[in-house]
Amino acid sequence: MAGQIRMTPAELRDRAKKYGHSAREIDQILNNLKNLQEQLRGEWEGQAFARFDDQFNQLKPKVVQFSDLLDAIQNQLEKQRLLSKITTENYRKILALTNKSILKKCRRAVQLSAWLFLKKEITQHAQN
């Protein structure tokens, strides 16, 4: 079953930007924590810090992965926005062409009806 998007391309763009902005915020937080970790390294020695440092180093790749995932979501939303925009524009063009075609057919039908009506009137008038 096909999904439905209940947002305009502009709304999709805004949401995509929020994901990208969030990824940048996470990157900045991680950089701040790395700097703090370096500062602690100079001020705290021993096994307790070594364990703490190991935990921090194990966590870093997960935070980077999360930031990368947010970037990937941003890219997917942006691609969907472009597809939605193209689809909407194409739909409008098709609708405009269809409406023109329908109008032409209606004009022809009206012209034909008028011609048939006049022909009938002329025939009846000629018989009287």
Automatic annotation (TrEMBL):
Superkingdom: Bacteria
Pfam families: WXG100
InterPro entries, sorted: ESAT-6-like_sf, T7SS_ESAT-6-like
Name the record gives this protein: Virulence factor esxA
